[in-house]
């Protein structure tokens, strides 16, 4: 579903991603782990088309090359990014927002879906305004369900959440996965991954994938941290 070939990214003379090769098959969930400043979030931003970065290489979604395309074009091609710190939209209710991002759903269908993600009570409140971290992240997952993307980029969706909220978010991800959407989840910590059905884990250090493997890598990181991968 998503294939990256020799993806590099820089800001000015500073190179952040140094040749990422990655392939996520339909329905799979891959995790990107690594120390702070290793390029994990940058990877999501570059795939989504953030113009802050100068990108090179290929970004393929269902064999369509999105390289060089604008964010709207990538979104229309089926790429969705959930942000680490979702912004509020004063003056726009979640119901209005939902109706605009999926005009095919009627109000009853939106309410039914919102109830599934435990956000029905927020439909007539402004998007992400005065919500807790866990509530905002549930709203992000609700939006993924509304848009049914081909690729969902979850940038530290566990950031700032307590253990109960992490479990709740993980359960929602697991319950709503299907063969139509592939997930790339970025995280610094392993907590949320222990509650997810992860197909592959990739360790990113200094802008490069230095090791890939199964969920056993999570325990390896917990045991010895990221210093073991430095210099590889």
Description:
By secondary structure, the chain is an alpha/beta fold. The chain has helices at residues 40-48, 71-76, 94-101, 107-116, 133-147, 163-175, 216-224; strands at residues 2-11, 14-24, 29-33, 54-61, 64-65, 79-82, 89-93, 126-127, 151-155, 182-187, 200-205, 208-213. It has a single domain (2-84, 150-229), classed as 3-Layer(aba) Sandwich (Rossmann fold). It is 30% helix and 30% strand. A six-stranded mixed sheet has the order 6-9-10-3-11-12, with helices on both faces. Strand 4 and strand 5 form a beta hairpin. The two termini are 28 Å apart. The relative contact order is 0.19. The model has no long low-confidence stretch (mean pLDDT 92).
Topology of this structure?
Elements: E1 2-11, E2 14-24, E3 29-33, H1 40-48, E4 54-61, E5 64-65, H2 71-76, E6 79-82, E7 89-93, H3 94-101, H4 107-116, E8 126-127, H5 133-147, E9 151-155, H6 163-175, E10 182-187, E11 200-205, E12 208-213, H7 216-224
Parallel strand pairs: 3-10, 3-11, 6-9, 9-10
Antiparallel strand pairs: 1-2, 1-4, 4-5, 7-8, 11-12
Under CATH at level 1, the class stands as: Alpha Beta
Radius of gyration, in Å, reads 17 Å
Q: Whole-number average pLDDT?
A: 92
CATH T-level topology: Rossmann fold
Number of β-strand runs: 12
Assembly type: single chain
What are the secondary-structure elements, in order, as H or E? EEEHEEHEEHHEHEHEEEH
Number of helices: 7
Query: How much helix is in the residues?
Result: 25-40%
CATH architecture: 3-Layer(aba) Sandwich
List low-confidence stretches.
none
Rounded to the nearest angstrom, the distance between the terminal CA atoms is 28 Å
Summing up helix and strand content along with how strands pair, one would put the structural category as alpha/beta
Task: Summarize the biggest pleated sheet.
Answer: 6 strands, mixed
Q: Name the CATH superfamily classification.
A: P-loop containing nucleotide triphosphate hydrolases
